[in-house]
């Protein structure tokens, strides 16, 4: 089955700096890679996703890159703000029958002003 | 749509007691997932259903855990007997995965077993 590794587990940056979170996956059949943000005491919510037919996707200050050959994908947040402080989870799955989203262990991002 | 609805939001119970967590998925979603979240292990997939049928329960930690989905709008996760190490936040999520799309999470149930 799929295994997703996520690094780092904690990340502290100054407001305005960039933050990068990296994930690797094991199942070459995986073709959907979402990122979720979880604020303290709340549910995980999707912030951006990427499919295997593209290498990069951007949405304002966040971007995700995918390297299928190396089986890794990354989340990039530019011009970080205090409200970006949260736990970020990467995940992977395929559209094969009998698969589900498998999550990394999460990265706690702290943005100090 | 109100989204995925879980109940209760908080549950405190004594060791050895039975605990039942409930979930109502988003109408029209054909997949339902149960995840457990702890600091040490992150978001662990426990079990998931497709069209009310359990597909993979390999994440269920032990026989004390069981899950059912009697119809498309309701699922339960039961722990009997509960133990302190079961203390965690349990999330239910639903989705339509024909196109590999977003899984929508409920608010979660924070379970404390004392």
Helix content of chain A: under 10%
Portion in beta strands of chain A: over 45%
In helices, the fraction of residues of chain B equals under 10%
Termini Cα gap of chain A: 41 Å
Number of strands of chain A: 11
Strand segment tally of chain B: 11
Strand content of chain B: over 45%
Mean pLDDT of chain A: 93
Gyration radius of chain B (Cα, Å) is: 13 Å
> Which chains make the largest contact?
A-B, 24 and 23 residues
Characterize the structure shown.
- The complex is a heterodimer of chains A (113) and B (114).
- Chain A is mostly beta strands and 113 residues long.
- Helices cover 0% and strands 54% of the residues of chain A.
- Chain A is built from no helices and 11 strands.
- Chain A has strands at residues 4-7, 10-14, 19-25, 32-38, 45-51, 56-59, 62-67, 72-77, 86-92, 102-103, 107-112.
- In chain A, the strands form 2 sheets. In chain A, strands 2, 4, 5, 9, 10 and 11 form a 6-stranded mixed beta sheet that branches. Chain A has a 5-stranded antiparallel beta sheet with strand order 1-3-8-7-6, with no helix packed on it.
- In chain A, a hairpin with a 6-residue loop joins strand 4 (32-38) and strand 5 (45-51).
- In chain A, 34% of the residues are buried.
- The mean pLDDT of chain A is 93.
- In chain B, strand 4 (31-38) and strand 5 (42-50) form a beta hairpin.
- Chain B is mostly beta strands and 114 residues long.
- Chain B is built from no helices and 11 strands.
- In chain B, strands 2, 4, 5, 6, 9, 10 and 11 form a 7-stranded mixed beta sheet that branches.
- Chain B has strands spanning 5-7, 10-13, 19-24, 31-38, 42-50, 53-56, 65-71, 74-79, 88-95, 103-105, 109-113.
- The model of chain B has no long low-confidence stretch (mean pLDDT 93).
- Chain B is 0% helix and 55% strand.
- The A-B interface holds A 1, 31-32, 34, 42-46, 49, 51, 89, 93-95, 98-106 and B 31, 33, 35, 41-43, 45, 48, 55-56, 58, 91, 93, 97-100, 102-103, 105-108.
